[in-house]
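S1.2 Input.
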Amino acid sequence: MVKIIGLTGSIATGKSFVSNIIKNELHYPVIDADKLAKEIVEINKPAYNEIVKNFGENIIKKNKELNRKTLREIIFNNVKKRNLLNKITHKYIKKEYLKLVDFYKSQGNNLIFYDVPLLFEAKLQSQFYKIIVVYITQELQIERLINRDNISQKEAIKTINSQINIEDKKNMADFVINNSKTKKETYQQIKNIINIIREY
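S1.3 Output.
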């Protein structure tokens, strides 16, 4: 049985750090939803063409790339347009995701991780065998985001509040990695969780 594990967290909780340990140190396949989202909208890819068809030529920059800033402005206050964009992108992301799952299965992998930042926001819970949440307290989240992005506390709080609260995500998870400690402790937590999942 192939087990697909959802890996998520919130902004500045260190999900990428955990993802890199799983992929580069423990050598399990990790599919990156953000990477897929960027790849599907490359120039002349099917998703790119469909977005341009629906949103017009004014969302293209001089170098033919999508103007993400213009696109964000269009969908920010227009729910209908936002839903349309999500529908287009999710369709192509899912297609590429399934291709990668098939590839990793063919390589003999029976444990595959899918790194999805907005897993709960997109209501994808039912797609996974188990869900791991990378967790830190909101206080530490704010502090790390301020330092990482060089923004004000007000901006950090606004960004964090645009996602589901990390405490709620923690309560919805099958497993929680407390990423507020040392790398060694985080690494050990990941190993312990994987061992439990493999034995189920």
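S1.4 Remarks. The CA atoms of residues 174 and 183 lie 21 Å apart.
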